[in-house]
Amino acid sequence: MDSPVSPNKPALTQPQRQPPPRPKRSRLVGSIVAILAMIALGALAWYLTHRTPEGAGGPGAQGGAGARQGGAAGGQGARGPGGPGGGRGGPATTVGVAAAEQIDLPVTLEALGTVVPAAVATVRPQVSGVLQKINFTEGQVVRAGQVLATIDPRSFEIALLQATGQRQRDEAQLESARLTLSRYRTLLEQDSIARQEVDTQAALVKQLEGTITTDRAAENQARLNLSYTQVKAPIDGRVGLRTVDIGNLVGSGDANGIAVITQFSPIDVEFAVPQDGVPELQGRIVANATLPAVALDRTRTVELAQGRFAALDNQVDVQTGTVRAKARFENKDSKLFPSQFVNLRLQVRTVENAVVVPVNALRHGANGDFVFVLNEQVRTVAMRSVKRGQATVDKIQVTEGLKPGERVITEGADRLKDGAKVTLPGERPQGQGQQGERPRRQREGNAQ
Fold first, then answer.
1. Which residues, 6 or more positions from 306, have their beta carbon under 8 angstroms from its beta carbon?
2. What is the pTM of this model?
């Protein structure tokens, strides 16, 4: 018989057995299952957030069908012929349009030119002497023949007096010799003198006549040197900064002279013509055509002067492949300054009744140049091959494939293909209102 357990003693219990450790293979399988479950949950969340709903997306089978239809329509639009918004079945693309115009298109030559004066003259004295007076101010506009400076004339006045005195003395001797010759000839007629004396006196007269000619030349040279003491402007133009002051000894050998005169009106612009454009330009020159020229500032926005083509050089520069040319401008307001860089625009000829479109309307493809022509009634575009002609900064000529008045696409053409639907700026795309209501109706159905 078992003895009762004392309440004061704890009961003896069996030790609990620990569960055997799980093998590593089981833990690996569990981790893989958990990862797959997380991937499935992520995919489901992405599908629910990125699907394209269609119609009033309420719960049930109808909402699921609407979602599937929306997803299929979105995929078809993305795979359309024109990419996003560019296919026949996709939404319309907003584009910019312009009408083809028929105008007289000027064919111009654009070049960078350098302003060069038509004439530059260094004012140098032609005789040596002390600079006595300066009759101009720096930067003054002068005329040809105007006295600019004066050299001390006293020594030249004395030289002129000496030449005049020598001529007068020789003239008196010539007069005496002529009288003697006249008497000798009278005596010879009376046979009172030998012919040799008459011939000798005639030779003396001719000698004195030669002396008089030399004296007159010396006198004119002295008079000319005296006039050179007044230094005059050789050309019209503007005087630069003077290089010598009063009191200095100046002469014809001075390299800097007294000042430099630059002719401002007219003035020339030298520029380079590409050798490919020389034949057309030469043909216009042979035809004695007047080619207008315009000088623009460095930004090509401000017109500085208007002129005409002046001359073309006679050889091609082998290093640049260009020919030097020159245009002349009146420059009455002195906007052109020597050594100034300007942009020259020379009008070579004019293409009459040319069909032109904006430059950004013409596109180039594998089969050549083309444009997108707008169909006004159905709001679609048609790709049409064209042939380009002359071009300006913003216009280009279409010689074949386009008629005046037809409207072409100028903006948004990179998203278009043949037959694509388009809308013009300011118009409401078709179906925009219905598409805008779909997300709102779906949100309301989900809320219910």
1. 292, 293, 294, 295, 329
2. 0.60
Q: What is the pLDDT of residues 265-313, one digit of tens each?
A: 999 999 999 999 899 899 999 999 999 999 999 888 899 999 999 999 9
Six-digit token string for 135? 């009759």
Residue 249: beta bridge partners? 130
Angle between helices 195-228 and 154-189 (to 10 degrees): 160
Q: What is the DSSP letter of 172?
A: H
Per-residue model confidence as pLDDT tens digits over 19-74: 555 556 667 777 888 888 889 888 888 787 766 444 434 333 333 333 333 333 33
Residues 199, 204: Cα–Cα separation, whole Å: 9
Of 314, 255, 262, 256, nearest to 285 by C-alpha is 314
As a three-state string, the secondary structure of 323-382 is EEEEEEECCCCCCCCCCCEEEEEEEEEEEEEEEEEEHHHCEEECCEEEEEEEECCCCEEE
Read off φ and ψ for residue 362, nearest 5 degrees: -90, 130
Mean pLDDT in residue range 343-358 = 90
Cα separation, 83 vs 371, in Å, equals 19
The two tokens of residue 68 are 């599937």
Report the residue count for the chain.
Answer: 448
